[in-house]
Amino acid sequence: MVPVDPTDSRVDSPLFSAAAWDVAIIGAGPAGSTAALHLARAGHRVLLLDRKSFPREKVCGDGLIRDAIECVKRAGLYDELKAAAHPLEGLRVYAPNGLYADFSGEFWTLERLRLDHLLLRGAMAAGARFLPGEVTGVGLGGAGVEVALKGIGAPIEARSALLTTGADLSLLRRMGLTAPSPPSAIAMRCYVQSKVESRRLVVSFDGSCLPGYAWIFPLGQGRYNVGCGLFGLAPGHGAPSLQALFNSFLEGFPLARELMAKGERVSPLKGSPLRCGLEGMPERCRPAARILAAGEVIGTTFPFTGEGIGKAMESGELAAGLLDEALR
Ligand SMILES: Cc1cc2nc3c(=O)[nH]c(=O)nc-3n(C[C@H](O)[C@H](O)[C@H](O)COP(=O)(O)OP(=O)(O)OC[C@H]3O[C@@H](n4cnc5c(N)ncnc54)[C@H](O)[C@@H]3O)c2cc1C
Known about the structure:
Blueprint: E1 21-26, H1 30-41, E2 46-50, E3 63-64, H2 66-74, H3 78-84, E4 86-88, E5 90-94, E6 100-103, E7 107-109, H4 112-125, E8 129-132, E9 135-141, E10 144-149, E11 152-163, H5 170-174, E12 185-194, E13 200-204, E14 213-220, E15 223-231, H6 242-252, H7 254-261, E16 263-265, E17 270-274, E18 291-293, H8 309-327
Parallel strand pairs: 1-2, 1-11, 2-8, 5-13, 11-18
Antiparallel strand pairs: 3-7, 4-7, 5-6, 9-10, 10-11, 12-15, 12-16, 12-17, 13-14, 14-15
Flavin-adenine dinucleotide (FAD) binds near residues 30, 49, 168 and 189.
């Protein structure tokens, strides 16, 4: 599948001609690629844009729970993604007093570098086109909307736009579609290589990481995604720093201690914000004709554990359904 040529800025190219696209989707994370796949399968002309070229890294825990796996099934990508993913035996959640509860079911890990690329490829195989480029604005235009791309003079025309730009609100703010809003949480992760064998997702709210939460997610072959997050409290305002929380988790949580005693960090710690529980919605957003938003940009992430891949995909499905109806 060949992506659209991003250097093709001729106004008469099919990329820029009026009404060439039914939907321009901005952001090719799980929300955007899922929406693109379903819209393209329904016969719509879909252009998916992202400021990054793929495969691209996304700071995440790389854990997939039931909601995400069900979306993958509905997208028809189950066999392909299951073959790429690392299957796990269950999920263990630790309470502040150190007691834990085990949850059974289907759980996977798959590094976002691969997951998001596979979802994008699925959308392209369904007929969506992909263009790497940073969108600087979306306004009303002749065909419906005009999408402005950084460094490209002529706007792209589409009948409608779907904004799936993740936790970063800068595009929506530039477009005047949202009031400033602090993220619900900030989290960070690194990769660890260790001789310890563990076959379940571990999420901890135990004393070592309070008032935050932490996780240890096995990726297979001794590789682990280890991270922690802090809800509601902006670091530097009386809350401990994330780095201090992470160190305290590595020293105080038995599995983390063992992991590090028999292994080492193999990547730097990287952080990113989360937007959860539809926080601030709908008050912080202004409606705009022909423009929808889905995924973490509207706060779809699950507030308990910070799982957001499945919720982003579900909201991508919902947006695709609404657009499909509206465009017929
Ligand atoms: C540390 C951490 C750990 C996490 N762990 C998990 C986990 O284990 N499991 C889980 O389910 N969830 C987890 N989450 C949450 C999950 O990462 C998000 O909920 C999910 O990525 C949201 O998907 P999305 O498609 O809405 O946005 P994203 O995945 O963020 O995708 C948005 C895309 O939009 C693009 N974009 C943004 N602005 C523009 C622009 N102006 N022009 C063009 N492109 C643009 C970006 O490049 C990006 O590719 C974690 C989050 C963090 C921070």
